[in-house]
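STRUCTURE:
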């Protein structure tokens, strides 16, 4: 319904020549903006359609050059083998617009590809004709999942198809390496570019860990629509755009970003012969020259683990937008994180000038996602094909089984590709041992443990045999994102008996562990002395297991206490030497293993050191520096919401109390030592209390009184940040309204305190006005005049977000209509709300609220033709409004009635609007209103 409204209003407002000022409402509406928002999905669909047509054309031209009879015969031979993956081509043929006659048959095209030793294919891949090469490479490496997921079944020889894919990968590897050399040369010429890294593996030199996203062990299955969306993101006309994508560990967000980088490098040749410059932004070498960034090519920057450096990333985007070096060259920031919480608004978008810059450059801000995309679970076909691909690669092909598929989904209800591959690997191990896989007893935890245990067993039994010191070094590297030669750990006397020092480290042992971990170089391009274990869940499980003294992760320690002691010493030194990286690691552990007993070891031993200012919104090295205690305190504040997972979570609540006590003790210790009051530790304590209060309120069975107690503690803290106090006041007001019975007067008091705070952010004040207006309307008896005054205050605020203004118009319109039975002024508010909601940066959820409120008003006040006629007369008699506003009001509400299937009422309103536009000499809008009338007749 809302899409229809958007389209219809756009037809009206696209004809508007000037802005429309609503004098009584105190707002300005710029109707032309609605048309821009409405056209985005159509443009994206058109781009995708054209891309598909072009690919089909290339393939048809190429296929006709071959002996079609021989190809068909070859297909028959392959089909008769009835071995390999189940693949269907019918849907792809329809998608690409390919016919079913012999020459255009997609089956014929695929058959030619399957001829692995065909000189024609080898020649085509090496041909300098980029169109042919790119079409083939694109088809095999990135569109194969279309076949694997389709419902119609044709069996083909997967082995031969894979051999072609490996040949293509080898060629692409060479091209990418050449491109990397070119980039390195460019980076040597200038320091005004960020350090972007991209792991690219030679197919002949894959690491010992097959689960790294960059190994691309399994094709990118089931993500066709996501990839199309990301390509449209690259192709958008704006110079600077950012987009946040979220997903839990193993959902495939980093793999998707990696594939996008490869595609952009190879295929996006529209502005440069070398494609896009792409890669992951370094986590260890910040780039601070964004205003002076000198671009020669379009650039895609992937930012992983965004939350830990959110404020810095927000500034990075703002400064890039203002840089003269990006003029005429597209820059895209793809941000990756586990989830999108309060940190997006508070730390990433921030306040004042940065907020405006990030709102204007935020891709997808008009969509239902509100400007970010959460990766959906894989659909059944793609999930099974992830599982089946690994089994087939290990020589254990398995027939499709709905029962087994259901079990995979039970183990991992999020249906993530990583876990499908992990389950398949453990399943294959069982088959190789001659065992029947007991899938019903498997869990996510024991699958990861089983694979790690297999690796650790190999360290004990195979040469070069790994000793415990090197295993500890791997644990340390996993906590701090890699250890480099010369770092303090390797000469620290306190760790001499725990990890190998530089003088006694064995290169063969380190090489073997690095091969398992998966990366020899970090994003700086420097070689690791020891690299971290990836994927993250592997590394987290390994560290947590050793902290717990679990025997399956030991090599030659005699007692588990010895292992635990060494592991805890490593934790202490990791906090002391690399607080930033350690904080990020602990947050990931808390997200993936919130109930693990070893979380307390990671968190309950605060490091020593003097407190220093900590960068706002994330841990990041800056010119002022920061101490380990700041990193620990920031982590404690951030982890609060992760520790309490349910209303009955006594263990998680107990840990939060312990951590809060440790924070208070650290603050008190500084005070007693005569050190200046540690401002950042106090802010961390306030943040920890606030975050725990938020979590209490978010539980399925909200713990409202506990939330109120935490917010109250923040409000009473003398040195708590002003913006956090304002947030706590607002949230406490919301919590008072959730009590049974609700405490309305206390809620109003808290909202009033926010409104009167000098330093409260404008958007929070607008929210407080709105919330107080709602509460005034709920009192007995309702205080309607006060409610209207609050809604009007938001409408008249210069810096209130458009979203809040739209809601304020809805609230005021409803209050005027219900409280004072004044239909015409209410109609102006409802029309203004619709125009704002569909012409500005407003989330889809808010648009839905605006639409439903307007539809309810129309149903109540224009339900019949006579009611509509009465509304027209009431609007005509409004003395305060300009004639153009009256016409717009009737036109917008008339269209809304039409979309709600009240056509007779719509006809009355639209005819009146048409005549009013005509009387004003506004022929364009009169004609637009007439077209809407014609649409009613057509329906």
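SEQUENCE:
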């Amino acid at each position: 319904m809302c899409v229809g409204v958007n389209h219809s209003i756009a037809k009206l407002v696209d004809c508007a020549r000037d802005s429309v000022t609503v004098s009584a409402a105190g707002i300005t509406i710029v109707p032309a903006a609605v048309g821009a928002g409405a056209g985005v999905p159509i443009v994206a669909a058109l781009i995708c359609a054209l891309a598909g047509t072009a690919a089909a054309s290339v393939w048809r031209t190429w296929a006709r050059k071959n002996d079609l009879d021989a190809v068909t015969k070859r297909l028959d031979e392959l089909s008769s083998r009835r071995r390999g993956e189940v693949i269907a081509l019918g849907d792809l043929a329809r998608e690409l617009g390919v016919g079913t006659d012999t020459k255009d048959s997609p089956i014929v095209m695929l058959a030619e590809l399957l001829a692995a030793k065909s000189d024609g294919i080898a020649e085509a891949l090496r041909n300098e004709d980029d169109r042919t090469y790119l079409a083939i490479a694109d088809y095999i490496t990135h569109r194969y999942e279309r076949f694997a997921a389709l419902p119609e079944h044709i069996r083909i020889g997967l082995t031969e198809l894979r051999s072609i894919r490996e040949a293509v990968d080898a060629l692409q590897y060479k091209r990418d390496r050449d491109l990397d050399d070119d980039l390195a040369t460019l980076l040597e010429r200038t320091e005004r570019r960020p350090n972007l890294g991209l792991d690219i593996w030679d197919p002949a030199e894959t690491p010992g860990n097959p689960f790294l996203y960059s190994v691309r062990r399994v094709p990118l299955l089931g993500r066709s629509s996501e990839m199309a969306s990301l390509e449209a993101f690259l192709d958008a006309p704006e110079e600077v755009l950012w987009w946040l994508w979220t997903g839990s560990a193993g959902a495939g967000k980093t793999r998707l970003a990696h594939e996008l980088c490869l595609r952009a490098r190879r295929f996006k040749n529209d502005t440069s012969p070398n494609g896009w410059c792409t890669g992951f932004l370094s986590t260890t070498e910040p780039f601070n020259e964004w205003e002076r960034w000198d671009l020669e090519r379009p650039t895609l920057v992937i930012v992983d683990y965004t939350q830990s450096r959110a404020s810095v990333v927000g500034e990075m985007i703002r400064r890039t937008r203002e840089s003269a070096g990006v003029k005429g060259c597209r820059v895209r920031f793809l941000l990756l994180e586990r989830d999108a919480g309060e940190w997006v608004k508070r730390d990433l978008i921030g306040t004042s000038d940065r907020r405006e810059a990030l709102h204007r450059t935020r891709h997808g801000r008009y969509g239902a996602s509100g400007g970010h995309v959460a990766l959906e679970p894989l659909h059944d076909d793609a999930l099974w094909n992830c599982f089946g691909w690994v089994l087939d690669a290990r020589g254990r092909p398995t027939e499709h089984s709905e029962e087994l598929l259901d079990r995979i989904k039970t183990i991992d209800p999020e249906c993530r590709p990583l876990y499908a591959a992990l389950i398949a690997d453990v399943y294959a191990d069982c088959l190789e041992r001659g065992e029947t896989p007991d899938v019903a007893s498997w869990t996510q935890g024991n699958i990861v443990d089983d694979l790690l245990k297999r690796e650790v067993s190999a360290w004990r039994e195979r040469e070069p045999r790994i000793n415990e010191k090197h295993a500890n070094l791997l644990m340390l590297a996993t906590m701090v994102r890699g250890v480099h030669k010369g770092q303090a750990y390797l000469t620290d006397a306190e760790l001499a008996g725990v990890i190998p020092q530089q003088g006694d480290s064995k290169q063969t042992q380190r090489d073997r562990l690095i091969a398992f971990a998966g990366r020899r170089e970090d994003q700086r391009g420097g070689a690791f002395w020891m690299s971290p274990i990836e994927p993250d869940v592997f590394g987290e499980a390994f560290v947590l297991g050793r902290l717990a003294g679990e025997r399956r992760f030991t090599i030659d320690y005699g007692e588990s206490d010895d292992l635990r002691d060494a592991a805890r010493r490593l934790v202490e030194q990791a906090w002391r030497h690399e607080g930033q990286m350690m904080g990020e690691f602990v947050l990931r552990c808390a997200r993936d293993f919130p109930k693990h007993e070893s979380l307390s070891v990671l968190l309950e031993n605060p490091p020593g050191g003097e407190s220093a200012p900590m960068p706002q919104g994330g841990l990041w090295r800056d010119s002022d520096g920061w101490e380990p205690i700041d990193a620990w305190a920031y982590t404690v504040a951030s982890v609060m919401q992760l520790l309490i997972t349910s209303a009955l979570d006594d263990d998680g609540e107990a840990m939060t109390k312990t951590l809060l006590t440790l924070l208070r003790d650290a603050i008190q210790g500084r005070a007693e030592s005569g050190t200046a009051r540690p401002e950042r530790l106090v802010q961390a304590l306030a943040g920890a209390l606030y975050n725990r209060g938020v979590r209490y309120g978010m539980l399925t069975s909200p713990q409202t009184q506990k939330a109120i107690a935490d917010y109250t503690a923040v409000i009473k803290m003398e040195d708590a940040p002003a913006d956090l106090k304002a947030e706590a006041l607002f949230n406490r007001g919301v919590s008072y309204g959730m009590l049974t019975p609700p405490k309305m007067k206390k809620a109003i008091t808290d909202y009033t305190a926010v409104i009167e705070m000098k330093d409260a952010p404008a958007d929070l004040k607008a929210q407080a006005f709105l919330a107080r207006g709602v509460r005034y309307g709920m009192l007995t008896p309702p205080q309607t005049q006060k409610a209207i005054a609050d809604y009007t205050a938001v409408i008249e605020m210069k810096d209130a977000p458009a979203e809040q203004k739209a809601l304020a118009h809805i609230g005021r319109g409803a209050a005027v209509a219900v409280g004072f039975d004044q239909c015409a002024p209410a109609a102006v508010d409802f029309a203004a709300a619709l125009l704002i909601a569909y012409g500005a940066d407003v989330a889809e959820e808010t648009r839905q609220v605006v639409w439903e409120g307007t539809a309810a008003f129309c149903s109540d006040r224009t339900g019949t033709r006579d009611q509509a006629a009465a509304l027209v007369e009431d609007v005509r008699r409004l003395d305060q409004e300009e004639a153009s506003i009256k016409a717009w009001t009737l036109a917008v509400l008339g269209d809304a009635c039409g979309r709600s299937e009240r056509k007779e009422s719509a006809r009355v309103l639209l005819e009146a609007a048409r005549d009013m536009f005509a009387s004003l000499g506004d022929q364009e809008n009169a004609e637009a209103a007439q077209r809407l009338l014609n649409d009613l007749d057509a329906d």
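REMARK: The longest strand covers residues 240-246.
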